[in-house]
Fold this protein.
Amino acid sequence: MRKFWVILLSMGLIMALAMPVGAADVKFSGSYVAQGYYESNARLTDPEASSSFGWQRLRLGTTFQVAEGLKLVTTADIMEKVWGAARSAVPTSSSGSADTAEMENIHFQAVYVDFNIPGGNYGAIRVGQQQQGKWGTLFGDNGETDWGFRIRYDYGLGGGPIWILAAYDKVEGSKIQQNYAGIGEHEADKYHIGGAYRWTGGEAGLLITYYNYSNNADNVATGYRQPYWAFQPYMKGKFGPVYVEAEVGYATGTYKEYNTSAGGQDVDIEAWRAYAMATMDLAPAYVGLGGFFASGDDGSDPTKKKNGLGTGNEFNPCLILLNYDLGRWNGLLGNTAGLAAPSHGNNADNVWAVQGRVGVKPVPKLDAYLSVSYASLDKNPASGWVDKEIGWEVDVAATYKIYDNLSYMVGFGYLFAGDAFKGTDPNLKVEDNYLVTHKLTLTF
């Protein structure tokens, strides 16, 4: 009953906000996801430790068209939780990724104003809380977690071959604080400039980002700033029966610039990530081959950081390895702390992988595929690491469109776990893992 009243009052608030707009056109869009899992051995231990669970989320987008060229846009996640999870005694944070506890019943991710510059074709401006972590392909994107205040300018978004953008981001958790004795600046900002060229069947672009982080510079003696740059070119297009997409990321600059020599030795950053994929349409079949890489750091050079860009949490190449939703809801893969990030989801570093895929679409509503992937560490995370091999994964999945806006997916994945999960213990026994999942997705 409490949930009913919360939802009812929230819908009343939305209606109340819409009323002063008068005759504004209000449009709703979004998605609902319900997914179930059975994972046989996420910890890769002997004996096995299985888990079975499901989760759901309604993501509701609302656009208030106030006037021609002027709109207010909101995005809310509603009832996002693991089925059967205990309700949180204290509401979780309104930013970042979900956890197994219940989030706010209605959790607003974005609220911003979007308006065209009047007087001609001068572009559009967005101001407010919005998504910050999307660019180019899905590789490297962190749209699921990177929400924050942004001022963004776009030119040519609605037409024409050339599109440019400029944006300023305030990183959440870095509110500017007033200085006082012994304390320096405390903020974290990002500045972007980019553009793309579009042609029939494809596009290519470049985003340049300057990171101006001083949220660790509070202490005048031992604090440090993080001024560095990132360059992200990408392309995607169809050339005859072959679709190709690729993206590269490179970060350079200073990862730790200490206020004084007492804080330590400055640390530069030189990190890479790269991705490429090609799919050939052999209707009703298709075949694909791809690979990706995110540089690692073995700590051998204390003056250089060689990781940090990551693969992103919207890039989910497998059902088990590097799958953000699985890692978010069921925890990390394996029992070796050093493998936590590169083996299971959220924006992995220190990994390279290749994948082959064969699929078939026997009828327009059905898409089934088989993929085989191999993954390895780029560098040993610590001295004495047993091996770099993360392992082989075989996935089989099929998606059927029940309606044009409603699809159902079933999948099976098997991970032949490699010895990288042993960490620095050569006697540690590592077992394989398999997964069965099904997912219902409604878009509107």
User: Anything to note?
Assistant: Residues 2-18 form the longest helix (17 residues). Residues 1-19, 92-99 have pLDDT under 50 and may be disordered. The CA atoms of residues 34 and 56 lie 4 Å apart.
